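A further point concerns the way the authors explain their paired sequence and structure data. For illustration, here is how one protein appears when written out as sequence plus structure tokens:
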Amino acid sequence: MIVHHSSIDDYKFVKNVRRSTACVFSLKNNSWKCIEDSRYECQLFVLGTLLNGDIHWVLEHQGGDCVIAAFDLVEERFKDLPLPDALTNFGVLSTGVLDGRLCVEEIICCEVNYTTVSLGVRTSRW
């Protein structure tokens, strides 16, 4: 995913290279930087969702818990956000934006449920 971050006036390209390693290319610095975060078990094989300067994915910790992993493009580090409580029967999870807020899309047996996440306050839209 290629993203322009206005606060640092830089274009960045984020790519997953191994299970727990993401690499970031900075156009401003014309260089790659790899960030290893061994907390995550699965790969970043789906496109992330850009919101408020972070790219978001639903990832699994090595212990088995799923979280929303937010990659901060300025600090170039991951931070975890909890999944909404409404997600109890995990199907296929991905992130998106709904009404300007981060949401988690849950697909169970061809039915799509959207749950929004906003600054630690979780609300459901079913």
